[in-house]
Recover the amino acids of this structure.
């Protein structure tokens, strides 16, 4: 069961420590032969799991390091560089294939993959995973044929075509424009698994039923993105003048699959394609029933033991869920496409590489808090959130940091907690409970927001590394809180069971 939760032999909630190893899962005896064989004693085989999770997953050769990749990338044309850093390609070694080594260029499946003097080349997902992709595309095409909603039909047929062509642009636009009671998200999106560069996307699927009433209530956030961008705590030179409002859909999750390992997401903001973000913005999906489950089974028990008595009642679901909405909205504002000091155009993701995910999660969180405060001051949100949002956020820090400091959300949360604790916005009491200093928290939130936004705007990987080195630590206050939670066995996360899907598919 834990293998299915993690989709691997490494525990994503324990900083990728192996829970299956060669030693404890090595030998299996198969006593039954396919056909009766005289004298058959069975077959033994060994399953070997590396102790360390490969940082490049299976997107790169296991013996490739970052320097080799950068040297190879530097030798490529712009078109080939795009292929190398694409969300949707796998990097392979020429020497792993039975090629004629005297030829500088090679053709795979009818396409030329130039390698020059280097051993690496890129191959698109639609070729690398052809048998699986083709089957998935056929099923999506059939599902689209059955769909009654025109926008859902367009999405499913678009995704079927994208799976086969490796071009996801049109299908992602169709996803953003989806207007259907049945809400479907499917395809390669998040890049958390690529710990080398954060380039390569993994496949995931979320199926839900839209909550029309809750969706209608949330238009306020999407409609105010440009206003928030204009007032962000960073220099005006870095601000965008054409932020698009983010469509927000609230759903009840009925099924998910693929890269949904470890911490169950309570919301997502997609697509990650910088072209679409620049032209159209992003779209957001909130998983309200997952949020409710996490609040009830995790956040509330954490508050009971970690928050000072006089502030405990300020932890409420409205604040938790509203900040989650703002977190996702804030992925859509701030720096994305940037201009480097030398005048070159680039993206935050490309410049920060493997540091991007953790810093982006921290940005969305802390700028989300700043944005809530801004909207309250504009009388667009109720004053009742003014204190509860900070105390609910403090409680949420202990929830997310338990995901481990190898996971992007856990890293981002550690940075925020330690920064705010250093600025005395979070206070530790002699009874080992915590509270928020409301006189200091607003300034501390704004200062960290400015720090992260400026690093992103400059594409300053060195500054990003220093920030993470200093603040992404399991400090003593965090250890105290986590020990208390272990003692009363508060779950780290939920593991959903999809009874509706099981009954339907069964």
């Amino acid at each position: 069961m834990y293998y299915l939760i993690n989709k691997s032999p490494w525990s994503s909630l324990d900083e990728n420590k192996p829970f299956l190893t060669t030693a404890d899962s090595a030998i299996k005896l198969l006593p039954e032969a396919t056909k009766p064989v005289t004298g058959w004693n069975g077959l033994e085989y060994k399953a070997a799991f590396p102790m360390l999770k490969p940082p490049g997953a299976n997107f790169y050769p296991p013996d490739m390091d970052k320097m080799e990749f950068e040297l190879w990338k530097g030798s490529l044309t712009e078109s080939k560089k795009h292929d190398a850093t694409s969300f949707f390609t796998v990097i392979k070694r020429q020497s792993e294939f039975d090629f004629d080594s005297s030829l500088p260029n090679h053709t795979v499946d009818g396409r030329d993959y130039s390698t020059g003097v280097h051993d690496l080349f890129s191959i698109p997902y639609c070729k690398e995973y052809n048998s699986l992709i083709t089957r998935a595309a056929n099923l999506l095409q059939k599902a689209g044929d059955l769909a009654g909603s025109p926008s859902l039909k367009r999405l499913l047929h678009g995704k079927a075509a994208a799976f086969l062509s490796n071009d996801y642009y049109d299908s992602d636009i169709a996803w953003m424009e989806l207007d259907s009671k049945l809400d479907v998200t499917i395809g390669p999106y998040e890049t958390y698994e690529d710990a080398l560069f954060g380039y390569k996307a993994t496949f995931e699927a979320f199926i839900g039923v839209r909550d029309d009433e809750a969706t209608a209530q949330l238009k306020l956030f999407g409609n105010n993105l440009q206003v928030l961008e204009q007032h962000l705590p960073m220099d005006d030179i870095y601000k965008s003048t054409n932020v698009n409002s983010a469509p927000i859909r609230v759903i009840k999750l009925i099924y998910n699959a693929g890269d949904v390992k470890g911490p169950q997401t309570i919301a997502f903001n997609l697509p990650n394609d910088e072209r679409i973000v620049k032209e159209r913005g992003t779209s957001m999906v909130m998983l309200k029933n997952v949020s409710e489950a996490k609040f009830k089974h995790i956040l509330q028990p954490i508050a009971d033991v970690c928050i000072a008595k006089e502030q405990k009642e300020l932890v409420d679901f409205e604040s938790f869920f509203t900040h989650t909405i703002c977190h996702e909205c804030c992925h859509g504002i701030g720096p994305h496409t940037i201009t480097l000091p030398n005048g070159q155009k680039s993206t935050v993701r490309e410049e920060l590489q493997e540091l991007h995910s953790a810093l982006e999660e921290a940005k969305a969180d802390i700028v989300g808090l700043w944005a809530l405060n801004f909207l309250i001051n504009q009388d667009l949100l109720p004053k009742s959130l003014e204190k509860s949002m900070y105390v609910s956020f403090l409680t949420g820090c202990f929830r997310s940091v338990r995901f481990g400091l190898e996971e992007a959300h856990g890293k981002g949360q550690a940075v925020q907690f330690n920064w705010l604790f250093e600025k005395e916005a979070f206070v530790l009491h002699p009874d080992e409970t915590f509270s928020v200093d409301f006189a200091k928290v607003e300034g501390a939130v704004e200062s960290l927001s400015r720090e992260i936004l400026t690093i992103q705007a400059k594409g300053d990987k060195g500054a990003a590394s220093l920030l993470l080195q200093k603040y992404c630590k399991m400090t003593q206050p965090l250890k105290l809180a986590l020990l208390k939670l272990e003692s009363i066995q508060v779950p780290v996360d939920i593991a959903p069971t999809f009874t509706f899907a099981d009954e339907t598919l069964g």
Q: What stands out?
A: Residues 356-377 form the longest helix (22 residues). Residues 99-115 have pLDDT under 50 and may be disordered. The first strand starts at residue 10 and ends at 11.
